[in-house]
User: What shape does this take?
Amino acid sequence: MSLQYGRGAAALLVCLFHVYGFTEKYFGVTTGGRIFEGGHSGVEFFFVLSGFIIATAHARDIGQPHRIGTFFRKRAVRILPMLYLTVVPLGVLFLTHPVYGADRALTLPKFILDLLLIPREGLLTLAPAWTLQHEFVFYLFFGLVILRPALGMGVFVAWQLACLVTVAFRLVEPDYLMPINKLLGVHNFGFALGLGVAWLYRSAYFPHLTRVLPVLSTVAIAGLIALFVGEWRSGSGVLGGPVPLTLAYLTCYAVLMTALLALPNRPRPRLDATLGLLGAASYVLYLIHEPVASIAVKVLMAGPFKAYVGPNMAYIATVAAAVVASIIVHLFVERPVTAFLTPKRRVDPARGA
Assistant: This one.
C-alpha cells in the first residue's frame, strides 16, 4: 500500500506542474512562484515504479512462453481502455475543430499513430501519452524475457547499454518528445532501476537492509527537496541540463521506493482515504488532468467568475477539479471497465479457490 501513496503523490505532482501552463496562459502571470516546478519528476517515479511492478507481477511468467499472450493482454487492459476513452474524444475534437488543438496540428495519420502508441514528431493528441510510448517499448523487451529468458535479458542489457552510449555521448538531443528518445532516451534507465528494486526486494538481502533504509530514505527525500528547490530557483538547468537532472530524480525515487517497500503493510485510514485513493486513481489523473484543467480554466474565466477569480485561486481550483474528476472517473468508469475486461478466475469445486 505504501507504493500506492507514492503513486498518488507522483500523479499529483505532475498535475501541479502542468496546471501552471494553463493559469499562466490565461492570466499572464507566474502562479505561486512555480514552487512545484519539479513536479514534472512524477513521471520519473512512474518509470521506476513500472519496472518494479512488471518484474514482480510477471516474475512467474518468465520462461513460460505460453504466458506471453496473458502478459500483453493484462498490460493492454491496464493501459488502453482509459487511454482511448481520453484520446479518442480529444482527437475527434481536434480533427473536426482544429482551432481547439492548434498546437497539435493533428492529422488523421498522426491520430492513428497516437492510438497505436507509435512515436512520431510533434505534440501528441494527448501530450502526457509520451510516457506510454516508453512503456510500450519496455513491454516489448520484457516480453522477449518471458519468451527466452537468457536471450531476453541479454537484449535488455544491450538496450540499456545503447541508451547509456546515446546519452553519454549525446548522439541525439535530449528532447523527451523526439521519437528516437522513446527507444534510446535517458528515461529508459528508470525501468532498469525498477527491475533492480524488484530484485532487491525479492532477495534474501532485503531484510538485512531495513536498518539502513530509513537513512537512505532520508537522503533520498533530502535530495528530492534539494532538486525541487533548485528547479524552483534556477529552472531545469540546476544540474547542468535535463539528462543529469533526470538521472538524479530516477535515483532518488528508486531509493525512496526501496524504503517504502520496507514499511509494514497495515491499514492507515487517513493515508488510505487520501493518498491511497489518489494512488488508485493516479493513472486516470495522469491522463485527464490536462483536458480537465483546460476546461476548468475556461469556465473560471467566463461570465460571473472572471471578476472574482485571480491566478492563485484559479490554480488551486483547477488542480482540485482535476483531482476530483479523476477520482470520480476511476470509481465509476475505470474500475468497472477493468473488472469487465479482466477474465474471472475459474474455480475448481474439488480444489476450491
Notes: The chain has 14 helices and no strands. The CA atoms of residues 61 and 161 lie 25 Å apart. The radius of gyration is 21 Å.
